[in-house]
Amino acid sequence: MKSWTLGITGGIGSGKTAVTQLFVDKGIEAIDADQAARWVVSKGKPALTKIEQHFGSEILLADGNLNRALLRQQIFQNPQQRKWLENLLHPIIRQEICQFLENSSSPYNILVSPLLIESKQYELVNRVLVIDTSESIQISRSMQRDNNSEQQIKAIMQTQLSRNERLHYADDIIVNDQDISHLEQQVEQLHQFYLTLCKN
């Protein structure tokens, strides 16, 4: 892996996507670990066949695609099944990410991942940027965006690192609790800083 890589992470509703888009607007290439995770289990992929063999054919929709809602339900209820799935998918996702980073041509590139720390993807990056905001903002943003209940959001938050644990891994922090112009200022400062870092 040749190029200098920034890892972006944060809890649900912290604003990872918005921040990443601001970097992309400056010409920086980014890969989203969530999108890579969706791609590796798309129709016709070997990982989907293994998931079907493990969970049974009811884990597929009528059109042959993965029934994500059912899979989510299964792994939330059963930690062992979740572990099995992580052991299958994490190495494949990591491979996809490495391939992207090797082929990237921007001055530096970005790996954005909600599980950057938990899945040890931070080992692939030179620096970790944590997008931080209060739990109440996380909950209200996620409820608006995903149409989930407060209970569902809190259940997802339970599976992620706590704010303090995540901040412990941070090289840089963006506090995303104000308007977009405040966010843009923070991104611009960090972008200039990263340009100097990746030249060295």
Automatic annotation (TrEMBL):
GO terms for cellular component: cytoplasm. It is found in: Cytoplasm. CDD domains: DPCK (cd02022). It holds the Pfam family CoaE. GO terms for molecular function: ATP binding; dephospho-CoA kinase activity. InterPro entries: Depp_CoAkinase, P-loop_NTPase. It is an enzyme of class 2 (transferase). Its EC number is 2.7.1.24. Pathway: Cofactor biosynthesis; coenzyme A biosynthesis; CoA from (R)-pantothenate: step 5/5. Belongs to the CoaE family. Catalyzes the phosphorylation of the 3'-hydroxyl group of dephosphocoenzyme A to form coenzyme A. HAMAP family: Dephospho_CoA_kinase. NCBIfam families: dephospho-CoA kinase. This is Dephospho-CoA kinase. It comes from Entomomonas asaccharolytica.
